[in-house]
């Protein structure tokens, strides 16, 4: 099995490392590059994995090189990776380069790495830290569908995986990248509202969080059923699932209908649409592409 080098042992690098170990990868097939000594010690103690500060050595002996440093550190890291890349007889790098750095284009990597390098860009999200993330993958010019499948298998260790064209990654960032913060804000508002309605903060928090988790579980189960075309699946495809479930739990003239009417009056849909649009624009502004 090809060795995997994770460059950057921050929260996302650690999430990927932990997920790969959980999904059965061997410690001997993994190496982490981390420049902060205290953090490096912590990772090697926790996971019994090789942690080094030598990018060239780690990347030079790996089949997959996963770049998980901050976007502003990518240029320096890629220069070091390029110097160590392993080339086949045709002069093309044999490795697959994977980037989780927000906003750094595959073209940026391709212009810095040896010609023809296979690059896959990944946009995971924070729930990857607990193995429940969703990662969008986009192929660079030279990565093959087979290489994309191999990279998808790596990210399945930290959640589910979708493939999108690279041009859609700013929209992905605005929906699933920033999405956890939208949900945390929603929970915060629901807890505060529950307290205002007379619940203790502790009870309101348990109710709000479990309601979000349970509702997500219902949606996932329904989406799975619809995808499999199982008995009882609602017609109309998965894009209408949330609306259908909402209709199912809203009885005529009931409490939920009264609550939903206030959310609509308060402009929830418009606020969400504006949030996603604004986050997408910000992601486009922050992007790093070749000169
Ligand atoms: N966290 C998320 O939820 C999330 C979601 C999607 C995408 N991402 C992307 O994932 C990447 C990493 O995010 P993060 O939250 O894990 O950031 P982070 O906590 O800052 O981790 C980056 C780590 O890489 C280390 N590093 C920097 N330059 C290095 C070098 N030359 N050699 C070795 N190690 C180096 C940093 O050390 P120092 O601290 O000493 O610089 C730090 O420990 C970012 O590009 C981000 O856009 C993160």
Note down, in words, how this protein is organized.
The structure is a single chain. The chain has helices at residues 11-22, 37-47, 55-60, 74-84, 106-112, 145-155, 169-177, 179-196, 201-228, 241-248, 255-265, 268-286; strands at residues 4-7, 30-33, 50-52, 64-67, 96-99, 118-123, 133-139, 159-163. With 291 residues, it is of the alpha/beta class. It folds into 2 domains: 4-169, Rossmann fold, CATH 3.40.50.720; 179-285, ProC C-terminal domain-like (ProC C-terminal domain-like fold, Orthogonal Bundle), CATH 1.10.3730. The mean pLDDT is 94. The structure holds NADP nicotinamide-adenine-dinucleotide phosphate. NADP nicotinamide-adenine-dinucleotide phosphate binds next to helix 1 and helix 4. Residues 3-103 form the Pyrroline-5-carboxylate reductase catalytic N-terminal domain. Its EC number is 1.5.1.2.
List the helices and strands and how they pair.
Layout: E1 4-7, H1 11-22, E2 30-33, H2 37-47, E3 50-52, H3 55-60, E4 64-67, H4 74-84, E5 96-99, H5 106-112, E6 118-123, E7 133-139, H6 145-155, E8 159-163, H7 169-177, H8 179-196, H9 201-228, H10 241-248, H11 255-265, H12 268-286
Parallel strand pairs: 1-2, 1-4, 2-3, 4-5, 5-6, 7-8
Antiparallel strand pairs: 6-7
Helix pairs in contact: 7-12, 8-9
The protein binds NADP nicotinamide-adenine-dinucleotide phosphate.
Domain Pyrroline-5-carboxylate reductase catalytic N-terminal: 3-103
Keywords: Amino-acid biosynthesis, Cytoplasm, NADP, Oxidoreductase, Proline biosynthesis
Main location: cytoplasm
């Amino acid at each position: 099995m090809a060795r995997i080098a994770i460059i950057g042992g921050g929260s996302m690098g650690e999430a990927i490392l932990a997920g790969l170990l959980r999904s059965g990868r061997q410690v001997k097939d993994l190496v982490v590059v981390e420049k902060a000594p205290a953090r490096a010690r912590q990772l090697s103690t926790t996971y019994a994995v090789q942690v080094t500060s030598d990018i060239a050595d780690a990347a030079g002996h790996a089949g997959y090189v996963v770049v998980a440093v901050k976007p502003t550190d990518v240029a320096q890291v890629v220069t070091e990776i390029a110097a160590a890349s392993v080339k086949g007889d045709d002069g093309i790098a044999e490795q697959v380069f994977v980037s989780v750095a927000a906003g750094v284009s595959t073209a940026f990597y391709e212009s810095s790495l040896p010609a023809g390098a296979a690059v896959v860009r990944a946009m995971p999200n924070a729930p990857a830290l607990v193995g429940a993330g969703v990662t969008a993958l986009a192929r660079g010019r030279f990565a093959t569908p087979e290489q994309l499948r191999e990279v998808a298998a790596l990210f399945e260790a930290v959640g589910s995986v979708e493939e999108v064209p690279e041009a859609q990654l700013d929209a992905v960032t605005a929906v699933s990248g920033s999405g956890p913060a939208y949900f945390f804000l929603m929970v915060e508002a629901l807890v505060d509202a529950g307290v205002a309605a007379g619940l203790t903060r502790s009870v309101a928090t348990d109710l709000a969080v479990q309601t979000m988790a349970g509702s997500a579980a219902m949606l996932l189960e329904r989406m799975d059923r619809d995808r499999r075309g199982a008995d009882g699946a609602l017609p109309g495809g998965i894009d209408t699932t949330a609306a259908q479930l909402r209709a199912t739990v809203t009885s005529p003239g009931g409490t939920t209908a009264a609550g939903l009417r206030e959310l609509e009056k308060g402009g929830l849909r418009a606020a969400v649409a504006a949030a996603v649009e604004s986050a997408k624009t910000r992601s486009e502004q922050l992007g790093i592409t070749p000169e």
